[in-house]
User: What shape does this take?
Amino acid sequence: MVAGDTLVYADIASNLLNHGIYGTSTATGIHTTLIRLPGYPLFLAALFRLFGQGNFLAVMLVQAVFDIATCYLLADIALRIFSGKDATASARGERVAMAAFLIAALCPFTANYVGTPLTECLEIFFIALATDVAIVAFDRRSYGYWAACGVAVAAAIQLRPDGGLLLGSIGLAILWQLWRNRSYWRHYVASGLVMTAVALSPCVPWAIRNWRQFHVFQPLVTTGATDPGEYVPTGWNRWVKTWILDYSSTEDVTFLVSGEPISIDDIPARAFDGPQGRQRVATLIDEYNKHLLMTPELSDQFGQLAEASIRRHPVRYYILLPVGRVIDIWLRPRTEMLPLDTHWWRFQTDPHDSFFALSLLLLNFVLVAAAIAGAFRLQKARYVSLLLIYPVVRTIFLGMLGGVEDRYTLECFPFVILLAAVFVISLRQGKTPVAA
Assistant: This one.
């Protein structure tokens, strides 16, 4: 699938190759930009240089190599965590590693993003790599390996700004080890500083470039992925956050602003405070549809609706909706990159798509449920914090966002796959895999 964000990344890569400008193409020419971190555009630029500009097949084939490498990394992580010194423990670790490799190799949800030129495939690889190297660094108490871990984390950050969650998660794992082994506190503090310094070092030239080009301090990207001076409809965004729950609404409504008409019928009833509220929103939507532009005036009016809704339903806004969004992005069928109807529950209108999507939903549910069960079966396995902290931190972070896309949880799948492998092997062995 080549569309949307892929074309933005490719445009930046092509402009970098052809004109030496890190920018996007517009009707008035090429304009420098900071809406995307340089990691993936540089990756595309390198492949376009080698295999021809716009050669997305080459990009996807290279991503397939990264995806296969991720399978081996997950197997290696399992070996390092669950293998012990005696033969029985070693055999147990090998079985968990094989299960992790097979689940990773056969997982259709990560495979979807091998065939999509987006950051997810590479991001997952570097998350797995950073975790694997962190385990080696813990075992060997090596600053060199902590620096190597920082390089992997840096790559994850330069691909996606939320890669910073990986830095924080590994940092929390270091603090946990420090708490358990206080006699090594100097080593763990120094290790965390080394990893952090290396991981954040690429942000320095990027921040300097943005300061010189735009006169703003921006070491990553803005929350709305916009350039300085570009209008952001904050009122509209806040109003959407008072009701959005599932990805279908993201496609039906938020992706259309600005530039495409919105139907009031695509907005769920929970967005309105009674018939009068619905009529008020319908009036604003009609006004938007006249020019297909979310103006500051319109956005402000939506913002007023948002403030009123939050005052009336604070529990829904701050607790129920974030929890609902988390459940949705974790348990949806993950069809956003497939030619299937996003409204997968409408069996009468499209039974084929609904049946296929339901199959994926069940498969995803089994995988996530197995991972949760596997987490509860961990007892004395080493470095359990490396497997558990990142998924928890990222889930909390995603619940706070207004946008809901299934792919935002894919970065957790290395840990989901490892924990699911633990559960599968524990079923076969009748006990929890425990490292010696």
About this structure: The chain has two domains: 5-215+360-429, 243-312.
